[in-house]
Specification:
With 135 residues, this protein is an all-alpha fold. The protein is built from 5 helices and no strands. The chain is 64% helix and 0% strand. The protein is globular.
Amino acid sequence: MTVSPESLVTAADRLLSPGPGTVGALTPGLRALASAVLLRMALDQALDAYWLGVTPSMTRVGKHRMLCLEWYAGPDTARRCRTTWSALSAACHYRTGELPPSPAEIRTRLLEVTVLLPALRPGTGIIPASPTSGP
């Protein structure tokens, strides 16, 4: 069963902002870590779908799909995609002695992924200006 990138982003958002009356079984740091994993999965799926529409062979190696994205989706989309993917990857790799990512940091990445998903639909590639366009 495949879950859409949009559904993964929605699940990550729910983890970051639990509704009132929700039992807080997970600490905010664990919620942020789980959200980071979901957001990276969403971005990976969006990249795979993008490259399937452009040239299916680009879905095999993650490094190549990031390097070539600039020429197909534009420099701004590629830069934001690389920055967001790298930040989410770093947040997903938990190391002993390090604090988990903060919910605020992952909320920023959630906003970036939300903007990137439409830009990674084949035939688009242009990201509208947004207040979160920084790294």
